[in-house]
Amino acid sequence: MSARILEGAAVAAAIRERVAGQVRELSALGMTPRLEVILVGDDPASRSYVGSKGKACQQVGIRSATHFLPAETGADELSGLIGRLNADPDVDGILLQLPLPKPLDGRTFLDLVDPSKDVDGLHPVNVGLLHQGRPVFVPCTPAGVIELLDSAGVALQGCRAVVLGRSEIVGKPMAALLLARHATVTVCHSRTRGLAAVCSEADVLVAAAGKAALVTADHVKPGAVVIDVGVNRVEDPALVARLYPGDPERQAQLAKRGYTLVGDVDFTRAREVAGAITPVPGGVGPLTIAGLLQNTVTAARRRRGV
């Protein structure tokens, strides 16, 4: 048995097309959405991700700008910038790129963002609304996972779902969304006893633990849908050879870049048990930015009374 591969690109493209249509409608009314991104420091991964967000905004017609702040930026300066963007009526969405350089605390500054402009869905007001079953802004990756499951025709009502990971960005909101779709949800983490046994009961398993190849074939129920949210840099040639035996493309990536991206699931072995599975890269990844675009348009429509 070899699982059906669930690619995220086509679903992300559909979301972007939908968003582009909504942007055109708003623009015709003189209300083109505007997203402001804040990047503190010069983390290469964050800078690359922010660049991708800017390009995606441009493609669908959203106005976007990035505020590049040095790693030495103080708390007063950052909070002042957030305050000015909150007060600007022309700004629809504010995104604070995480992680922040120490000693800045991400939670402190996320809490300062106006909830009506919180396109990451991480302000306590939006988190509370999500868990009450009346979401406004849903964190982008979990929202994308739901769209992917829907596009694949996965029936969530009544299914047994396991979420591996309890982060504020993925694990907890993912569990809330699955509950809202009438799944029976278990949340696992690093201290869960008998982790493989718990995971193997899942009809839908969402892995978001942040540990390369943590989920093995023993964690997967035959025929289950496995969604791999993890993105981990692996530099060990022996580990890459074990995870992707006989895969020259992976070995070439490792030789060229010095690393390859690996999910939280041992893809090669899990796909022989699962009914459907997402690859890394190319699975959930494309959906995250698409979700950000949708949240930005939602913010613009709500704030402007459309």
Core attributes:
three-stranded parallel sheet, Rossmann fold, 306 residues, globular, six-stranded parallel sheet, 12 helices, alpha/beta
Short account of what is shown:
With 306 residues, the protein is an alpha/beta fold.
Structure notes:
This protein has 306 residues and is of the alpha/beta class. It has 2 domains: 30-115, 3-Layer(aba) Sandwich (Rossmann fold), CATH 3.40.50; 140-287, NAD(P)-binding Rossmann-like Domain (Rossmann fold, 3-Layer(aba) Sandwich), CATH 3.40.50.720. 42% of the residues lie in helices and 15% in strands. The protein has helices at residues 9-28, 44-60, 75-87, 106-110, 124-131, 140-151, 171-180, 195-199, 237-243, 248-257, 267-270, 285-303; strands at 4-5, 34-40, 63-69, 93-96, 160-164, 184-188, 204-207, 225-228, 232-234, 260-262, 276-277. Helix 2 links the parallel strand 2 and strand 3. Helix 2 (44-60) crosses helix 12.
Based on DSSP secondary structure assignment, what is the total number of beta strands?
11
Q: Count of helical segments? A: 12
Distance between the termini: 49 Å
Percent strand: 15-25%
Helical content (DSSP H or I, runs of 4+): 40-55%
Question: What's the structural domain tally?
Answer: 2
What is the chain-wise order of helices and strands? EHEHEHEHHHEHEHEEEHHEHEH
Stretches where pLDDT falls below 50 for ≥5 residues?
Answer: none
Q: What does the average pLDDT come to?
A: 95
Structural class based on helices, strands and sheet pairing: alpha/beta
